[in-house]
Write a structure and sequence with these properties.
The protein is an alpha+beta fold. Helix content is 45%, strand content 24%. The N and C termini lie far apart (80 Å).
Length: 387
């Protein structure tokens, strides 16, 4: 009877390993690393040390709790360990149906509990088979890890790191998948405190649109609104978006610091965006002003006021006639911009990202100044009143 039970256990172990191997090869990002190279003498020393530990482990039996770890078997390629959790309402038990997370966390818990043993196992290049019982009396799940995955999980510093890594594993299995309308996720990675999301977009932009600006704003909105980004920030990890856009020659790349991911700093670098927009607008100048004798000569970004500053030249009589009427001129100017092609989109875009607009007008003859400033709040109110 005992022999039959042993054979049945071995059958379950082998069949479980064969069944799970094809989907469990989540090698470390950047490719499968080669096993560490040691001299025969050093390797023999590691192996002898591991053998002695296992002898003692066999005598002791289960060690610790949450999970309790028990040695089961070892051969020339893999070590088999049981991990038994003793609480019915633990996080692992509650999230038992989330396969990738449970698979990563059970090994994470085991390696943190017996780091000395697993360090030897990793150095010797063993794979790991883990028999995990996530709650008392629960079903035993069999997880198989190659040595690369073992080494990767051992580098994780916290349960948050394990959560991020498990999410990437799940995402890589699904890829490519629809991330948003007309946007596909084609890859994910997480290594050395860098989380990377690769997207492919088939969105059609108008000839005059700047997809770089559009993606910069959109990625910053994802950073600000997605709760998962906070976990990445808590891990002191940088988030990178790589976007391949149909029709674009280069890949758009945006990176966000942990402080931005945690909301401690703005997700969108307003100074960078203001400077980028100003340089793009400046390339279209000089240009006549709407319903005026003036011309727009130059555009720059003022980081102190956070406005796009447009330098204009106008006839002396027009400047003199409007000095002191700056507030009265604001509404007609915005109305004229709305009436112009794409003016509404431009004003709305400035308001959404927190940029203002300032016309710095001088007369052509005496250089008499006339300044009309629109704050971001004024632009927002103007847009809202016309919706």
């Amino acid at each position: 009877m005992k022999k039959i039970a042993t054979l049945m256990m071995l059958m379950v172990m082998v069949l479980g390993a064969v069944a799970q191997n094809p989907i469990d090869q989540d090698d470390c990002d950047g490719g499968l690393p080669e096993p560490w190279e040691f001299t025969d003498q050093i390797r023999e020393g590691f192996q002898e040390n591991l053998d002695n530990i296992i002898k003692d482990w066999k005598k002791i039996g289960a060690t610790g709790h949450g999970p309790a770890l028990t040695f089961k078997d070892i051969d020339e390629k893999r070590i088999v360990i049981a991990a038994d959790y003793d609480l019915t309402d633990s996080m692992v038990a509650r999230l038992e149906d989330q396969y990738d997370w449970v698979r990563v966390v059970t090994l994470f818990d085991a390696t943190k509990r017996l780091s000395d043993i697993f360090s030897l196992v990793a150095h010797l290049g063993y794979d790991v088979v883990l028999h995990a019982t996530l709650q008392p009396g629960g079903e035993t799940k069999i997880f198989v890890y190659n040595y690369a995955t073992l080494r990767h999980i051992m580098t994780l510093k916290s349960p948050i790191s394990a959560y991020i890594y498990a999410d990437v594993i799940a995402g890589r299995k699904r890829a490519p998948f629809e991330f948003e309308d007309s946007v596909m996720c084609t890859g994910m990675s997480y290594c050395n405190h860098l989380w990377t999301l690769t997207l492919h977009s088939s969105i059609a932009f108008e000839p005059d649109d700047d997809p770089y600006i559009a993606w910069a704003v959109h990625c910053s909105e994802i950073i600000s609104n997605a709760e998962f980004m906070q976990y990445i920030g808590m891990d002191s990890t940088t988030a990178r978006f790589n976007i391949v856009q149909d029709g674009a020659k280069d890949t758009f790349t945006f990176e966000y610091t942990p402080a931005q991911l945690l909301g401690e700093e703005p997700a969108l670098d307003i100074d960078w965006l203001g400077d980028y927009l100003a340089r793009g607008i400046d390339r279209t100048f000089p240009m006549p002003m709407q319903s005026s004798t003036g011309t727009m000569e130059h555009c720059s970004y003022d980081p102190t006021l956070r406005v796009l500053a447009i330098d204009c030249l106008m006839d002396e009589i027009d400047v003199v006639g409007n000095v002191g009427r700056e507030e009265q001129l604001k509404l007609p100017i915005l109305e004229a911009m709305i009436a112009a092609s794409e003016g509404n989109d431009f004003i709305q875009a400035l308001a959404e990202v927190g940029l203002g607009l300032e016309y710095r007008i001088q007369s052509r003859t005496t250089h008499r100044p006339l300044t009309i400033t629109f704050t971001p709040d004024e632009l927002r109110v103007f847009i809202l009143e016309r919706q």
